[in-house]
Amino acid sequence: xxxxxxxxxxxxxxxxxxxxxxxxxxxxxxxxxxxxxxxxxxxxxxxxxxxxxxxxxxxxxxxxxxxxxxxxxxxxxxxxxxxxxxxxxxxxxxxxxxxxxxxxxxxxxxxxxxxxxxxxxxxxxxxxxxxxxxxxxxxxxxxxxxxxxxxxxxxxxxxxxxxxxxxxxxxxxxxxxxxxxxxxxxxxxxxxxxxxxxxxxxxxxxxxxxxxxxxxxxxxxxxxxxxxxxxxxxxxxxxxxxxxxxxxxxxxxxxxxxxxxxxxxxxxxxxxxxxxxxxxxxxxxxxxxxxxxxxxxxxxxxxxxxxxxxxxxxxxxxxxxxxxxxxxxxxxxxxxxxxxxxxxxxxxxxxxxxxxxxxxxxxxxxxxxxxxxxxxxxxxxxxxxxxxxxxxxxxxxxxxxxxxxxxxxxxxxxxxxxxxxxxxxxxxxxxxxxxxxxxxxxxxxxxxxxxxxxxxxxxxxxxxxxxxxxxxxxxxxxxxxxxxxxxxxxxxxxxxxxxxxxxxxxxxxxxxxxxxxxxxxxxxxxxxxxxxxxxxxxxxxxxxxxxxxxxxxxxxxxxx
Length: 560
Fold this sequence. Notes:
Layout: E1 17-23, E2 27-31, E3 38-45, E4 47-50, E5 58-60, E6 66-73, E7 80-84, E8 89-92, E9 100-102, E10 108-113, E11 120-124, E12 129-132, E13 140-142, E14 151-154, E15 161-165, E16 175-179, E17 187-189, E18 198-203, E19 210-214, E20 220-222, E21 230-231, E22 240-247, E23 254-260, E24 266-271, E25 285-286, E26 289-296, E27 303-309, E28 312-318, E29 323-352, E30 358-385, E31 401-402, E32 407-417, H1 420-424, H2 427-441, E33 448-455, H3 457-461, E34 468-478, H4 481-492, H5 496-509, E35 516-527, H6 535-557
Antiparallel strand pairs: 1-28, 2-3, 3-4, 3-6, 4-5, 6-7, 7-8, 8-9, 10-11, 11-12, 12-13, 14-15, 15-16, 16-17, 18-19, 19-20, 20-21, 22-23, 23-24, 24-25, 26-27, 27-28, 29-30, 29-31, 32-34, 32-35, 33-34
Helix pairs in contact: 2-5
Signal peptide: 1-15
InterPro entries: WD40/YVTN_repeat-like_dom_sf
Keywords: Signal
């Protein structure tokens, strides 16, 4: 595993994994829309593919060892395009199992493709852009633009393509070039920073949101398809230079990998609001050269970047936590209600005399009770808005409050045991049960705690008087409600039999010979934060008091 120096307990440290891919002086990566499939091209090495989100890698030897400077992958991971710094490049339409060599003349530097892989663009440092609109069957070459292209990007449909180039002594100032017809024609677009240090570029699915990194300065963001650009301030001017960028499909989530100029260390910057706010908390300082490619899944829930150290290339995956802060607003709700209750009573007295005459006296009494209730309540509502992070000190953990609320999945597991005390008071057995549970459910044991509740044995087990039903409540702490719901769904798919096998084996491994049998399990999601009363709560409370008072008024009228 690649050594990483973590400077924050939040953010990229959560869910991060660095994996050695192979020998190479640098590395470029790309992945499918859900992040399960990945491709890596090593500079001076081979191409590699992964089918498990970068956990393991398979070398693809057919294209050979080359200086791979660019790779791209379709949304489903079946199609791959490459950009080696050589005369020919390679594509695959079956996830890297087989490859097709495309003869050309350029020294290729970057590539991109549409979600379905039908549109492919490959750029060259020799003023050439090659595009295909039929999955690589036919190619169109653009050779009339005197630029040393270094990056390329495509929208989801491939109808809109972008290629960027920095300043080059062999040609001229850099620039940004776009095609609105899948590469048939190209035009120069507006470039920030005079285009002199243009680097990587990333697009939302529709191309409306764009992020362009500048090697010697700050990244730039466009929300109008590149017509205008806004510079992002990451620390003081000249403090950072950025190498690569990635954007979620909807453009709301962004990730740029930048170099701290004073030390050369790499930092990952994240934005969860379309580039308005950026934060280094969560952050990580990376003891890694390069960081020449960045990637996000379609929904921004998984990120990846690549680099090298001591001639070895690495792929790093992580679960981004985007910076937000919480604000509280207070509103006063006044409810004034007048309730009038009227009670009418009729009294009839009948008197009978000896002469058989009858006298009847009827009187009606009306009593009106009026009660006015004024209820003034102060309601507090809590919401989340983005806030600027501390851009001067990337190690400051107090700059940002993270948006995702830690959420717990509680899994109640019914156990049949001989003696519950032996288990509940034995820390070794409790730890073993946590390990067995975590193994069965596919979660990190460090996220799991357990507590026990003993159930009446005679009621639950009938004739099995020598055994006791013990409920083990396993609590899995997740970084967000979304993650908790996903984990709950996965846990519900694990059978009682598999759960029993894993827990029984775990306690047996630490020497326990008694009975531990899993007979059932249920999972629920519990949010760990308290909810402040809102405006509706205050109004409901006032209404409740009014109704109560109305009933009181009617009751009072009966006494008159």
